[in-house]
Every structure is written in structure tokens, then in C-alpha cells.
Write a structure and sequence with these properties.
The chain has 170 residues and is α+β, with helices and mostly antiparallel strands. Helices cover 15% and strands 38% of the residues. It is built from 3 helices and 12 strands. The strands form 2 sheets. Strands 1, 2, 3, 4, 5, 6, 7, 10 and 12 form a 9-stranded antiparallel beta sheet that branches. A 3-stranded antiparallel beta sheet has the order 9-8-11, with no helix packed on it. Strand 8 and strand 9 form a beta hairpin. The chain is globular and about 35 Å long. It starts with a strand and ends with a strand. The model has no long low-confidence stretch (mean pLDDT 90).
Length: 170
């Protein structure tokens, strides 16, 4: 484990082969598109979903996400990867496909998050408090509630990322 500063921790890298099965599963489906109408301010239309425990936006019910129920094999594979790279227990996972996110914080997360990316791509690095990090097969732990972060807008290829976290009141 390598500490870059008090707020961002670079964890031990995984191997590309650790993601082969998950990648093969994800390439067979279409991750839901998030439009501007159901989306956080500043994000372009993108493909993303949450696995694990979620709280309904309109009904407030906390339960296993619909995506996790629809794709239980993908959910189990994401959990397996989380156990390899995440040093804390988590109850939710954000799955992104080719997302280039603007500057933001994750106000509904509790404590640290771990981000890791995979796929056949270059660019689109994570910037945390104006420092660039490469999360390709390398988990990066930081508190997304308090540290402003975004991606560089230079994605070439096909990128997936997973963010392991604990959601507010889940």
C-alpha cells in the first residue's frame, strides 16, 4: 500500500486477468443510460448503474438494486473484485461505462470510496484535488464526500470503472 498524501491512498494493483470474466459479461449487455433528466448536474448523458444496496429515489425503500437482481452473476463477480481490492466492507458499487465525470463530490457516500478502472482504453484518468491518478487496474481510496474529483476528458477506447462505497443510511 502506498500513501500519496493523507487523503488519497493508492492500493496494490490487480492484474488484467482478474477482470477478464467480468469484462466478458459486461460486453454482452447494455448498461442503462442516464439522461439529463435523472442525472446529477454537470454530467453528460452516460451509461452507469448501481449494484448492491440502494435507496429508492422516490419511495425511499432500501433494497438490492434492480440491476443486481437482473444480473446476479455480474453482481457476484463485482463483489469478488471488491473483495480483492477494497480494504473495507461496502454495500454499494457504482458501475460506469465510458463515463467522463465533471468536478463533483459524492455527498451521499459515507466515509471512503475505492475506485478501480478496467478495459481497453487510454486516458480518462481521475483527478482528485488537482492531482492526476491512473486507476487502471489500480484501486484508489479517497473520501469522495470531501475531495472534489473528476476525469480528464481524453478517453480513447472502452473503459469500465467500479466505485465501492457505503451509501447514506443503507
Amino acid at each position: 500500500m502506498m500513501i500519496y498524501n493523507m487523503n488519497v491512498i493508492i492500493l496494490d494493483s490487480l492484474k488484467e486477468k482478474d477482470f477478464n470474466y467480468l469484462l466478458s459479461l459486461l460486453q454482452k449487455i447494455t448498461i442503462p443510460k442516464k439522461s439529463k433528466t435523472n442525472n446529477r448536474r454537470g454530467f453528460k448523458i452516460h451509461r452507469a448503474t448501481t449494484l448492491g444496496i440502494t435507496r429508492g429515489r422516490f419511495n425511499g425503500i432500501t433494497q438490492l438494486s434492480n440491476f443486481s437482481k437482473k444480473y446476479p452473476i455480474i453482481y457476484q463477480e463485482v463483489i469478488r473484485i471488491g473483495k480483492l481490492c477494497c480494504p473495507f466492507d461496502f454495500n454499494s458499487i457504482q458501475l460506469n461505462h465510458n463515463v467522463v465525470c465533471p468536478k463533483h463530490t459524492d455527498s451521499k457516500n459515507v466515509n471512503d470510496s475505492v475506485l478501480i478502472s478496467f478495459g481497453d482504453y487510454t486516458g480518462c484518468n481521475i483527478v482528485i484535488n488537482d492531482k492526476i491518478y491512473d486507476a487502471k487496474y489500480t484501486p484508489i481510496m479517497f473520501d469522495g464526500r470531501t475531495l472534489e474529483h473528476y476525469n480528464t476528458d481524453d478517453l480513447v477506447g472502452d473503459k469500465y470503472s467500479l466505485v465501492f462505497f457505503n451509501g447514506e443510511k443503507c
